[in-house]
Amino acid sequence: MPQQQKGTEQVQVQNPNTNGDEMLSTQEAELLNSLLENSRDTFDFHGKKIAFITGSSGSRVLSKADFFNTCVNPWLAKGDTPQIFMVLLTQGEKEKSGDYDAFVLSWVKVFTDRQKRRIIEKLATNE
Hints:
single chain
């Protein structure tokens, strides 16, 4: 059962949707909207297809379940804020990647344009 908390504390996603696609559930979208509130401008995660990236150079693509279970929930359980940020894709990048709208990155030290292109290519070949 999700932990519903008031104020600035976050709702922990206990059972991420694991049906194989990276479309976000309502709960997942609300959590990411909240966690990335200061950096997402007008982007809304509801109904979006998201790729989850980790590794010091941003080279590893995680499943949604792995991302929430390893990069988000452990921090929320301790009352901490996970170290995540987002990268929006252009319309052209979205088309090349297999319709991903954005990347959410965790524990990535450096994410270059070159690495972004590699991830887009990797996602395109896995579709």
